[in-house]
Amino acid sequence: MKKRVLILLLLLGGAAPAWAVDVGGDVYFQYSYTLPTYDSAYDPRSSNNDFSAFDITRARLELFGEPQPNWLAHLATDVERVHDYQADVNGDGKLEDVTTPDAGRFALVLRYAHLNWQPKTYVGVDAGIIETPWIGFVDQANGFRFVDRLLAERAGWLGQLTDVGLAVKGDFPGHYGSYRAQIDSGNGAQDFEASKQKAGEGRVTFVPAFAAGVLGHFSLSLGGRYNTSEDPPGPALDRDAVGMALLHYRCRYINAGLEGSLDSHWGRERQKPTSNGMAATGWLSVKPWPWFEPFARGERFDPDLDSSGRGRAASRLDGETLAADRDGFWGLLAGLGFHPINDVDAALAGRITWFDETYRGGPHDGETIAPAASLLASLAFSF
Prior knowledge:
The chain is 3% helix and 53% strand.
């Protein structure tokens, strides 16, 4: 639960009006165990056989301040693992792979730093390091992000949770929906903006009048994202266009959703898409008692529906990439969620992934790669 504290700001040696600031945060702790399902002689994932690890996937500290009515300042830090990255090392405009000895270690990052002005419920402005329109919205609908991120985010099609930009947002009259439209760097809040190109993205949510009554909450959300990049800089651009949709129902006992995204990518100097990918997720959780919630999530990932640029999207998929020629996979995550006390959530889950890909070469040439399986124990708490 957030605690209210009083912070006295001093400006140029004089006393400024005091801001009432809410302080809060949340932590995600996880234990994962990868089951030994791989052929150690021929499978590139064999190093993960019989592997277990503890990890912190979120450690967020947040400050919310209200300098004036209808104004909200939000600052939040978080932790994430350091990864190798790309940078313009030689100053020639070309991005090159850079390795770092700190890879795998924790780094403190600035997750949010923005100012929101909301003069009316139906219109407001958000500027700074802001949340992107789709990822956080869908995660809140799903309710189990502390167990694992949703597929479209892991695939990298939707950018990152936050980015540097400017947004216009609000609720429709009568609370029959909401909207958010923004322009941002397209690289995520933690990455330097490598070119002058930007991303435009948005979301609109409809809540029909008949679906806001005693039977629960039903909504339909549609979103889109268009991003261009120049690597190396020049007249030709790489372009990505993503369309998203979410059908969501929630009541006291049930939370169900079906979310999907279609990604089209145009390579340099191409007039037609060089690849079209699809990511779809469906989930269902049932809460018969306040402290107990079985849940299941199914996934389907196809990096290239027309097979003309196979593997482009899959090569960016966190922790699941085998090779650049992956065809796709089906995934299932299922488990039990627990809510023992306020602001504390836990889950025990199992995950299995069936790959469309086959072995290339060796005695298993042409055989389907064995499924990947893991066990997860997750704990989330807020303060």
